[in-house]
What does this fold into?
Amino acid sequence: MRIGDALTTAPCILCHETGRHVVATTGRGMTPLVTVICDGCGLVSHDPIPTIEELERFYGDRYRMAYKGRWAPKPKHSLRAQRSAVLRAARLAPLIAPGARVLDIGASSGEFVYMMGQLGFRATGIEPNAGYRAFGVEAYGVDITDCRLEPCAFGAGVFDLITLNHVFEHLGDPVAVLGAISHWLAPGGLLFIEVPNIVGVAKQRANLFHYAHIWNFAPHTLTGLLARAGFQPLPGEKLDGTSLVFARSPDSAGAQAGADPVHWRNPPLVAALRRQLNEDQSGTAYLASGAPFRRRWARLLRNIDEITTARRYAAPRAMADAVLASAAMATAPRGPAQSRLAA
Ligand SMILES: [Zn+2]
It folds into this structure.
């Protein structure tokens, strides 16, 4: 198989088109990995999509490693996760009512669950990785369950906010997961999803695709999948990005807006993405762009800062409290989601 080859496969999960074009044949580390773009909507994915069994096998090694003895992130990684979590908390807390129920899917070592709990919300997480989960429970005293999504039974309408931070692109069956989320969300509930954006990404081709990221979303394909599942971005969200807060469409008004798969066909996006992915193929072009040097420099500065900061704290929890305090955010959330929705 070669780049540019045309394929016919199962109907696209977004637009139902069966035509694809190959955009890459290797993944990170030059491992064989076929990546295709949908001819209809521009959704970029592996071909074929891994089965649940294949994904379990892939993640199996990491799980086994985590089961062996005590696993713990380096302090600088805890700090990075805490800083990212506090930014999400600051963004999402004002959108929900005080004491709202929050579920973080793919909670990792529990930093976001902890921050939201400290802000007065009833927060819980799902994390399949035993090592991360055990660390989060021990270090932050948070509630993280080990249920996989499919058999996990929370009941209907039990959460006011569900979050997936860099998780949605890993899912073998994102449509099924959106169905479960719809069931778990209370009326007026919100859904936060952040995924990498493939549009305009400046990475060397050899590092662009990897097995764990099954879907490579553009804003159009992300909002499309969500719309087909009955979710619309909140007013004011940045629609040219892939970090968005969604609300369930009211049943009467516009519940069917975008439900038709054909609505999401987007030939200009397909052409633009194919052009983008055909460019900067070579390592030389990537080097010439200067991006790797800027990236390395930024990473070095970040490392120095993280290591010196993390050294000041004896435990991850004390560090998390300091991160939260320094974020200088209002501790009391403002106003229910409905007021924002009505705006
Ligand atoms: Zn498609």
Q: What stands out?
A: Residues 291-310 form the longest helix (20 residues).
